[in-house]
Design goal:
With about 110 residues, this protein is mainly α. Helix 1 packs across helix 2. It is rod-shaped. The N and C termini lie far apart (about 65 Å). About 5% of the residues are buried.
């Protein structure tokens, strides 16, 4: 059920920790095997969900780190854009800043 051997070992240990914690409250008439199987199955299922969640978070973090590289380019572009806007005559500069950068209407 689990691909990673480390996750498998953790689920195995967790199963027996549940057994130790609930040993006094268990009342098993025939065999402990089916009960342990259910606990192991639920534990492995939770471990699988946690691993999938961890992979999603790791992918999101990797994507975010690649975007951070782009922000350096964005900052450079922003700097050049502001330099070029500063070169415009005042009457054109005001229109560009108000309409294009601040999102105001033409009116």
């Amino acid at each position: 059920m689990l691909a990673d051997p480390h996750d498998t070992q953790d689920a195995f240990q967790a199963t027996f920790l549940v057994l130790v914690r609930k040993a006094r409250a268990l009342w098993v008439r025939d065999s402990l095997g089916p009960w342990l199987h259910q606990v192991a199955y639920r534990t492995a299922s939770c471990a699988r969900s946690a691993a999938a969640r961890r992979r999603r978070h790791e992918r999101a973090a990797a994507l975010l780190s690649t975007r951070e590289g782009r922000t350096e380019v964005d900052h450079e572009l922003e700097r050049v854009l502001h330099q070029e806007i500063d070169r415009l005559p005042q009457r054109y500069r005001a229109a560009v800043v108000l309409c294009d950068l601040e999102g105001r209407s033409h009116e």
